[in-house]
Amino acid sequence: MSGTTTQLVNALKSAGLRATFFNVGNKVQQNPALAKSQRDAGMWVGNHSWSHPHLTQLSAQQMTSELSQTQQVLQQATGETPKLFRPPYGETNSTLKSVEAQLGLTEVLWTVDSQDWNGASTSQIVQAAAQVQPGGVILMHDGYQSTINAIPQIAAGLASRNLCAGMISTATGQAVAPSDGNPGTSCTATYQRTQQWGDRFNGQVTITAGASAISSWTATVAVTAPQKVSATWNGTPSWDSSGNVMTMKPNGNGQLAANASTTFGFTVMANGQWAAPAVSCSTP
Asked: Which of 95, 78, 85, 99 is nearest to 52 (CA)?
């Protein structure tokens, strides 16, 4: 938990993604509202020990103290008792597993390390996320601007692979499709190329509401460098720092009835790259 936690939560919400935040207990004690804000934003909240020690070097009694104190402060802050635990540094042993079981915690390890803690750039983090397979878990942290900047491109990459950001199963410790209702999946985005010339092409994105009406929507369009979007219509665009990810919001009223749709379009200067953009949609 850090000053960038709120930025990361907002970036995830804007991209229509949900994540599991593993919180260090003594940080939650200092700022319980930050943990509550994660839960209020639709994120899942897990236990990451009280003081982030090398737990395998501690006694069973010390391990129990580290985990149980964190359970208590997170329950007080969020109203829910965590069921997931990520051991610091990924270090575990049979004693720790026994303590976890006694506290009703499922141990979570990662399948892909983003290396954000090791100075990875935004593009390197995006590349790491592209390696995550269905059921996989990527390790990321909230204290790095490079991680926050990677979120829109990760969202577009998941959408292009027909994957969603999953919740972690308490049965297996692996990611599964969310089963508690996802505020980010009440609209879908589909892309088609409508025109093409020697140096550019036009694309159209169709936004379709799900089974319920929506009051607004936000679409993400990620182009492949060195492509650049040169014009847009039927929406209000903004850009990330790379210039490769466009966030499109409706002009004026973004309301759509259940299963209704609307479209927006754009022109892409190909610059020798003709790959289709990756698109995704989220609702407030």
From this structure: 85
CB-CB neighbours of 118 under 10 Å: 8
Closest residue by Cα to residue 139 from 71, 90, 83, 67: 90
Q: Are 102 and 82 in contact (CB under 8 A)?
A: no
How far is it, in rounded angstroms, from Cα 222 to Cα 154?
10
* Phi, psi for 240 (deg, rounded to 5): -85, 180
* pLDDT, tens only, 134-189: 899 999 999 999 999 999 999 989 888 888 888 898 888 888 877 654 444 478 78
Closest CA to 155 of 249, 17, 13, 9: 17
The residue to which tokens 């379009």 are assigned = 265
The burial of 197, by beta-carbon neighbours within 10 Å (0-12 exposed, 13-18 middle, 19 or more buried), is given as exposed
The predicted-structure confidence for 119-138, as pLDDT tens digits, reads as follows 999 999 999 999 999 899 99
Instruction: Count Cβ atoms below 10 Å from residue 274 Cβ, excluding itself.
Output: 12
Tokens for 248, please give them. Answer: 């499109």
CA distance linking residue 112 with residue 165, whole number of Å: 14
- At residue 102, does pLDDT exceed 60? yes
CA quadruple 44, 46, 48, 50: dihedral positive or negative?
A: positive
Question: In the Cβ-directed half-sphere of 44, how many Cα atoms lie within 13 Å?
Answer: 24
Give the Å distances, CA to CA, from 79 to 47, 76, 82, 93.
Answer: 14, 6, 10, 30
DSSP annotation of 277? P
